[in-house]
Amino acid sequence: MESSDQLRILFNKYLQNLCSLEETQRLMDYFEQDEDKDRLKDLIIDVLEIQDERYETNPAIAEVLAKVDRDLFIQIQETPSTIPDRKNKTLKLWFKIATVAASLVLISIGIYFFNHRSVTPSAIVKVEEQEINPGDFGATLTMANGKKISLASVSKGEIARESGIVITKTDDGRLMYQIDEKLSDPNAINTLSTARGETYQVTLPDGSRVYLNAASSLTYSASLLQNGKRVVKLIGEGYFEVAKDKRHPFIVKTNKQEIEVLGTHFNISSYTDDEVEKTTLLEGSVKLSALGNSKLLKPGQQAKLSGGKIAIVETDADLAVAWKNNEFVVESEHIEAIMKMIERWYNVEVIYIGEKTKERFSGKVSRFDNLSKVLEIVESTGEAHFDIKGRTVYVSK
């Protein structure tokens, strides 16, 4: 069992979206236990008091609270009256939480989808009972010498040493590089790749952190530097938190474009089977170049690259990085876009039978849910039907 200090640190990390997949699952498992409710109540009160107003814009808080049973929820609401020194602050917080209690019920289920039509209970058709588990934390590291290391099974600590580079697996499961510039070989190329159903994080030699989504790869020299620039190549989807270094611009190359930054947070979706390549900026600034065209991107904007042309649109950046926070979130998406996410994360094949539905879907789902639960809720809209046979999902209208 976790100690109180460990739980408090883990809970704080979760509310700030800093938990790894393994840490999030450990925390969720604890909140679903029925024992030690007093300890759980104190933890929630202490941490939420520190978070204060920020809970309103942090769905992670609501998700954790939804794991708590109704009796404990009531206990926490009543607690401020017995603690005078923090009465006003905590009362204010819990009064607001009470006003969104209805939404907690939805979040506790972990998933909801909706479209423009109302659905009656009789319209809900249960998907064939067959459990396909969600993806997990894992990847394969291919070293310059051709050696492949499975990062899901390798022990924590130092896992490789090559050309002045020491590669370790941290306590929270991430990959981390440490470099001796005098001994490093700029020609030593590493590739970190995730299969379908895998996600991973790596801290590069410069301190930049990269989150890889399923079916993606990141290729880079072990020293990271090429001709005075920090250069990586991405296939698939990655979220970047780039360390600032004015002397060495950070370059991300995809099959279609090149993105240059100094220090910023952004997401790139560049799957080969997607017609549009999307770059979404959360903070800082980036320059995109493709076929002689270039654009500057500002926070809250998304660049869509298609046919060599770059279109800039305003967007909700949280939608683009929901996968990093262990959620699928879609807004007015066609069934094909939803099923591509499902293919990659659940490692299944999707086959369409007959005419595809033209309805657009919006909503969110926890990436920890089994596939049958996800499809059951989508099917409840009455706009799509699913049959699961083995690892193949058949989609019909």
From TrEMBL:
<keyword id="KW-1133">Transmembrane helix</keyword>
<dbReference type="Pfam" id="PF16344">
    <property type="entry name" value="FecR_C"/>
</dbReference>
<dbReference type="GO" id="GO:0016989">
    <property type="term" value="F:sigma factor antagonist activity"/>
</dbReference>
<feature type="transmembrane region" description="Helical">
    <location>
        <begin position="93"/>
        <end position="114"/>
    </location>
</feature>
<feature type="domain" description="Protein FecR C-terminal">
    <location>
        <begin position="328"/>
        <end position="395"/>
    </location>
</feature>
<keyword id="KW-0812">Transmembrane</keyword>
<dbReference type="InterPro" id="IPR032508">
    <property type="entry name" value="FecR_C"/>
</dbReference>
<dbReference type="InterPro" id="IPR012373">
    <property type="entry name" value="Ferrdict_sens_TM"/>
</dbReference>
<feature type="domain" description="FecR protein">
    <location>
        <begin position="191"/>
        <end position="287"/>
    </location>
</feature>
<keyword id="KW-0472">Membrane</keyword>
<dbReference type="InterPro" id="IPR006860">
    <property type="entry name" value="FecR"/>
</dbReference>
<dbReference type="Pfam" id="PF04773">
    <property type="entry name" value="FecR"/>
</dbReference>
<protein>
    <submittedName>
        <fullName>DUF4974 domain-containing protein</fullName>
    </submittedName>
</protein>
